[in-house]
Amino acid sequence: MPSTVAPSGGSKTQPADDQFNWQQQWYPLAPVSYLDRAKPTPYTVLGRRLVVWYHAPSQQWRALEDRWPHRLVPLSEGRIEPGSGNLQCSYHGWQFGGDGRCARIPQADSPQQEAAACGSQRSCVAAFPVRQEQGMLWVWMEAGPGAAAASQLRPLPLPAELLSSGGDGATPAGSLLGGWYQRELPLSAEYLLENLLDPSHIHFAHSGVIGSPSRAGSIPLHLAGPLTSQGGFQLHMDRQWQGRAGRQGGRGQQQAREIPGLVDVGEAAPAGGSGSVPAVTRFVPPGLVCPGTSRVFTAFFATGLPPVLQSALRSDALAPLLHAFQFLADLGAHQVIDGDAVHIHQQERTVRQEGRRSYFMPAAADRGVMLLHRWLDEYAGGGPQYFPGPGAASSGMGAAASKPLSRQEVLDRYEQHTKHCPSCRQALSSVRSLRQALQLGSASAAAAFAVTVAQALATGPCLVLAPPCASLSLPLVLGVAGLLAGGAQQALGRLERQFVFVDYVHADRK
Ligand code: FES
Ligand SMILES: [Fe+2]
């Protein structure tokens, strides 16, 4: 169950050395393509409200606590001051630099007073280290002196194939296939982690999408290596993984290293690792928002591709095209997430009432879930340790987690994803414009058809009695055009709903 710790400096609840420290970790914050350099954006991570903004003078993204020290209004409502590149509060105009120090107080009574106030610790906001790698912005959830140095010692929780720094600086062996998928869900992180470490649900929860019940069977998961506080654990799956429609991958492997930074789910990976054999791996670093809310990030990366293909995937020329069509991949990802979300949301409510001791897990397929809770209990305080107090996401954290939501709220694709995703936002806007144009076109065609038929009937019976007559061609064309426009409009209406809400009824998906 989620719990909370004192903010930095609260030594009483600091984890012991052999315990996982939830603050001293890199977390995925946002795909860079989702961020706007011209505006600050609010994000919550580990229960702490942050403002993310681009500091042009240093050419870096910054993450500060989303709370002005003057009168505690949110920084994310501010604006970026064009001259200095500072973040300016839109309430009284104070300005902050990328390091969280106050740089300007317009109401100061004298330059001396302004300098003294700007130099005071009380005018600073907490700044969190951030890094940009593989199209993702990562944040280290500890601020204060020493945080930047500590963050440098810990590599980003990316698979080794995607890491370009920290080692010999060589180009990573893997390349992202397209962009990142991000969706914020009304589910606590422990339940999301359970789901990611549970391959046996795929053939049932995603039947007809990426799984098929006829292919289900024993999944003998086993622990590879030790459980450690910082290293998490690794699960191996000694069985041929069977995908949809008879596609078979090699020996699968599921890993949970350095939780919560990395759950690395290998699908169709060849036996013995990636090597020079082409392979595609799904990478799912969970985003911890606050109790009751998590952010799912997904990306696919390829290894073992011919160099020409690798360079094409990394080239800047291809990026805009891949981003423009990212919405197609995202609509597919929604189907998978929806299939899980309807289960997990209710599961969380029930576990809150009954406790997890009621789980009955006789098969080895559940070993990932068992190990997850063993690791959380032994090394990580039983679950994510969210920030309470100043800067926390809400004073009533936990209340949101127990609030029952409607299916529309649980599966709200628009609020959880579309409004944040540039590709889906653009696609939805285009679909809506096209649908409106077709609506207008089909209405005009129907009206013209009616007028033309009426005129033809008024001038003689040839429309009905003599089909080849010349006056037939115009109403026929108008009628067909109207029907086609109506059909296209219906299809676009269905596509539009894909970006907003689609109910997921498991009984209808066999
Ligand atoms: S509250 Fe932001 S400057 Fe006053
Ligand atoms: Fe999207």
Largest sheet at a glance?
Answer: 9 strands, antiparallel
Strand portion, in percent?
A: 15-25%
Estimate the global geometry from the Cα principal axes.
globular
Mean pLDDT, nearest integer?
83
Structural class of the helix and strand makeup?
alpha+beta
Mind telling me the C-alpha Rg? 27 Å
What CATH architecture label of the largest domain applies?
A: Alpha-Beta Complex
Note the main attributes of this structure.
22 strands; 510 residues; binds fe (ii) ion; disordered N terminus; alpha+beta; 14 helices; 3 domains; Rieske Iron-sulfur Protein; Naphthalene 1,2-dioxygenase Alpha Subunit, Chain A, domain 1
List the helices and strands and how they pair.
Layout: E1 3-4, E2 26-31, E3 41-45, E4 48-55, E5 60-65, E6 79-80, E7 87-88, E8 95-96, E9 102-104, H1 111-119, E10 127-128, E11 130-133, E12 136-140, H2 147-152, E13 175-176, E14 181-185, H3 189-196, H4 202-205, E15 221-228, E16 232-242, E17 248-257, E18 264-266, E19 279-283, E20 287-290, E21 293-303, H5 307-314, H6 319-324, H7 326-354, H8 367-379, E22 385-386, H9 399-402, H10 407-410, H11 413-418, H12 422-459, H13 462-465, H14 473-498
Parallel strand pairs: 1-22
Antiparallel strand pairs: 2-12, 3-4, 4-5, 5-10, 6-7, 7-8, 8-9, 11-12, 13-21, 14-21, 15-16, 16-17, 17-18, 18-19, 19-21, 20-21
Helix pairs in contact: 12-14
The structure holds FE2/S2 (inorganic) cluster and fe (ii) ion (FE2).
